[in-house]
Amino acid sequence: MYAPPKPPSFARSRLTPGAALVVVIFGLVVPACGGNGGYRARAAAERYPPFSPEEAAIFDDTLAPALFSGSTRTGIEADPKLAERTQRADAVLAAQIATVSRDAPESGKPTFYLIVVQREAPLAGSEASDQLTLPVGAASPSFPLLELGGMNPVGMRLILFFKRYNEAGFVSVHWHAEPDTPEVRRAIERALSELGS
Predict the structure, then answer these.
(1) What's residue 36's pLDDT?
(2) Computed over its alpha carbons, how large is the radius of gyration of the chain?
(3) Cβ burial, residue 93 (10 Å; 0-12/13-18/19+)
(4) Contacts of 99 (CB under 8 A, 6+ apart)
(5) Domains assigned to the chain
(6) pLDDT digits over 92-146, tens only?
């Protein structure tokens, strides 16, 4: 059982006239309000692409199963999805899991995990936040792996790929995590060299 502090429940909100909105992106809280505030929130989202099914296959909000098994992924350097993640991501970061918390809201609302990772070295792109929060919902393939609790992921080192999107006029973040291994790093370097060639 993990015992980090319990985070507050959260849910996606939509702007209504006179209503307040708090947009949470990787620990960055951006307050906005109706009227001009709503316009600013939507204007920011317009900078980003829509989250299409094609993008969802690349940035799938999951932790690679190899992170839980401790095994080395074979053939990762030939994985076309890793190359696409590297080339499409806003940033690729080396990071370490700082906390994992499980939130079970009121009856009828889905349970989810929040994984807080500590940013270390950027491998591509840039990200200003030192700590990034990754939600894992019940529909994620990573959810049952966290539920089993066979391995405590706190302290685990990983490579995080993430990208911001425009979903229904609001900024969202989707991500994927792989083990921080020499094989994964070589695959990232190869993908970056192909992008620059």
Answers:
(1) 46
(2) 17
(3) buried
(4) 2, 4, 5, 114, 115, 116, 154
(5) 48-196 (2.40.50)
(6) 999 999 999 988 767 666 788 899 999 998 999 987 688 888 888 888 889 988 8
62: which strand partners? 176
CA atoms within 13 A on the CB side of 167: 16
> Looking at residue 123, what is its pLDDT?
93
Task: Report if pTM > 0.70.
Answer: yes
Tell me which long-range contacts 141-149 makes (C-beta under 8 A, separation of at least 24).
141/60, 141/62, 141/65, 142/61, 142/62, 142/63, 143/112, 143/113, 145/63, 145/65, 145/68, 146/100, 146/102, 146/113, 149/1, 149/2
CB 195, CB 87: distance < 8 Å: yes
Structure tokens at 178: 């792989």
Cα 19 to Cα 12: distance, rounded to the nearest angstrom:
14
Which residues pair with residue 26 across a beta bridge?
Answer: none
Confidence of residue 56 (pLDDT cuts 50, 70, 90): very high
Neighbour order of strands in the sheet with 131-137 = 62-63, 170-179, 157-167, 91-103, 112-125, 131-137
At 8-49, the pLDDT tens digits run: 333 332 222 222 222 333 433 333 334 444 555 567 888 899
